[in-house]
Known about the structure:
- The complex is a heterodimer of chains A (about 350) and B (about 280).
- Chain A has helices at about 40-50, 90-100, 105-120, 135-150, 165-185, 195-200, 220-225, 230-235; strands spanning about 5-15, 15-25, 30-35, 55-60, 65, 75-80, 155-160, 185-190, 205-210, 210-215, 240-250, 255, 265, 280-285, 295-305, 310-320, 325-330, 340-345, 350.
- Chain A has about 350 residues and is an alpha+beta fold.
- Chain A folds into 2 domains: about 5-235, 3-Layer(aba) Sandwich (Rossmann fold), CATH 3.40.50.300; about 240-350, CATH 2.40.50.140.
- The longest helix of chain A is centred in the middle third of the chain and has 18 residues, at about 165-185.
- Chain A is elongated, with a radius of gyration of 25 Å.
- A two-stranded antiparallel ribbon of chain B has the order 1-2.
- With about 280 residues, chain B is mainly alpha-helical.
- Chain B has 2 domains: about 10-60, no CATH class; about 70-275, MetI-like fold.
- Mean pLDDT of chain B is about 85; it is low at about 275-284.
- In chain B, strand 1 (about 240) and strand 2 (about 245) form a beta hairpin.
- The interface of A and B includes residues 52, 84 and 156 of A.
Amino acid sequence: MAEVKLRGVKKSFDEVEVIHGVDLEIKDQEFVVFVGPSGCGKSTLLRMIAGLEDITAGEIYIGDTYVNDLHPADRGAAMVFQSYALYPHMSVRENIGFGLKLNKVPKAEIQRKVDEAAKILKIEELLDRRPAQLSGGQRQRVAIGRTIVREPSVFLFDEPLSNLDAALRVQMRMELEKLHANLNTTMIYVTHDQVEAMTMADRIFILNDGYVEQVGTPLELYRRPANIFVAGFIGSPKMNFLSVKVLEINGQQITLQLPGEDQMQLHRENINFRVGDILTLGIRPEHFELEQSKECFLSATVDMIERLGNETYIYANDASDNLLTVVGDGELDVSSKEKIKIHFTTDHCHLFGRDDQSIQ
Amino acid sequence: MKPKQNQHPLKYSIYSLIAVVAAMIFFFPIYWAFSTSLRNPLDTFTVSGFGIPFLNFEPTLTNWVDQLATEEARKAVYNSTVIAVFASILALALGIPAAYALARFRFKTISNKDLTIWFLSQRVLPPVATVVPFYLIMQFLNLLDTQLALILINATFVLPFVVVIVRQTFLDLPIELEEAAFMDGARNYGAFLRVALPLAAPAIAATGLIMFAFTWNEFLFAITLSSKEVITIPIHMAGAVDTRGVQFWFMAVRAMIAMIPPVLIALLAQRYIVQGLTLGAVKG
Lengths: 360, 284
């Protein structure tokens, strides 16, 4: 059990800098998720903590130990790889016990620990098989078993569920959460899947282009995204963004011109813009409604409808030809090419300045 | 061999026929040597038909008995075996760590690519150009006409192949497996010995076999560096030419003897060579 600290960590491959000075602190026993689009540097960051990548600049601490120059074997971390990386020439039992064998743990002790891990992961009957004889989900369990027996101070997961089918992914997700609850160990989990991030994390670190964009609990990120990137990344379907013009500023009350004829008023404390500026308004699809009950509305023409049973996705073009997404209930009575009015309240509006940062 | 499911029977028959004919063309010289080895020397050129034993001529083991009875033939088999086995082992022992280092570590002063090409460039020079220097070196070391001289030289000449082929094998192994070993607490040596090496074993066995065949067939250095004691099989074969011309009946027996060990080893090791051990290591 340990906390993990990164101070000004940078990484360059040849001349190209891919991680630009990351500072972060992960508390003991915390379940932290690094999330971001492909190529944002999340896996590189994890591999740097593991010791599998060199650090170009900065410092990494696991617990109180400065680990920059330590071999991966000495860092007390265990890792589950995206490809599982099971040793194909060893049985499941040997795979799980390999780390213990390297550390010269007595045979009886290895046997006991492997059996215990197999019991937790429900793979007792697979212990004598080879990895090639296992399904994807079973391999995943073996890979996790291999990390459990080492009793590491930090667990590292590199997109461990991305090779599983949807149903299995949901199941493994819940099992990982249970595992975290049982083991009470620091876990760092990398994924590009925001659903995984939202459901599992105590805290999420959102990465983009080698920078940490925002850190917070899942709901903090959903409710108060710090910038357009985070707003667009968290939430599914994606947040709608509209260009709006500032018509009037009256103290902390601002009037905005929506696409089409309607105007709206918002209350903001940090006024760092002027009349005439073009800002970005963000509204989540689930906060749009078709019933005529809300303060503001947008006129739009339905382009396409996706019915998922429990809910309906409506894609519609507004007066400025922006594509808007609306999430409604499954029975929603709407048809293609229909003219609709999309209603929303100011409480659910996010306003972003010209620097893409949120205006509070 | 079973026909593939969606293949037309006629197409399959034609392909099979072509394969059989091609195989007959390639195997005919070997068959002819075998047939010749069983003939009375007088029948060598006069045999009728396809030289089928019992049908076209009365086979005899005289040539085999005469050949195997000679001290020279037994010595040649012994020398060739010792030299080929130890030269291959030496080349593998030196080449595998070099190959692993080239595949997994990044060298700074001289790049990995340049080092690999440097290894390979050892084979660009025609071996005959190095005969005189090697002769002088061996003379200086007092190693002329010894097995050790030929073991050292053959190992030197096959080493680049070992490095280049085995390096590729290591490159083809998923690096996550060794990284997983690191995370499990292994150092570089542990990851190499317990993970990379066992997984590369089939390819290494195949490489060793090819190196054995190379060394077994080596002629140039065997004839220049040895005179009396360390006669190898290729030299022994060439010895079937004497003042009366080529003694085809002896030549045939010697060719058979030269062929049997490598073919036998290849057949025995086939299972390991074909086996793809990495199956199931990473996602299916």
